[in-house]
Design brief:
- By secondary structure, this protein is an all-alpha fold.
- The protein is 86% helix and 0% strand.
- The radius of gyration is 17 Å and the shape is flat.
Length: 114
């Protein structure tokens, strides 16, 4: 039952943001830019495990992975100026995945393991 509650609550937040975006892209952007998913994941992890070390590790991993995730938000608007939505979305996800791969490879060369 707990898993169902977590899933429903998380889904409701995502749906609420997408509904708010229809009325105000700024407000939805503010809500989406708050690390809601990260905060929920950290909360669920702590409530499930009561392990602070796991929360610290997840928080550090999230922090380290912010730079490559920004790629999506750079590529998408640029692609949308030239292509339709689905091509732009696919290209943005693909480029972001490639940047993640390169970034994680670089981190590992410096001894940083995620």
């Amino acid at each position: 039952m707990y898993l169902v509650i977590k899933t429903i609550l998380t889904a409701l937040i995502i749906v609420a943001i997408s509904e708010i975006a229809r009325r105000s892209s700024f407000l939805a952007g503010v809500l989406a830019s708050i690390p809601l998913i990260s905060a929920l994941a950290i909360t669920w992890l702590y409530l499930d495990t009561k392990n602070v070390r796991s929360v610290v590790d997840l928080s550090n991993s999230i922090l380290l992975l912010i730079p490559p995730s920004l790629t999506f938000f750079i590529v998408l608007p640029l692609a949308l100026k030239k292509l339709d939505f689905f091509y732009s979305f696919f290209i943005s996800i693909t480029v972001t995945a490639l940047v993640y791969f390169v970034y994680i490879s670089l981190l590992s060369r410096f001894g940083i393991r995620l």
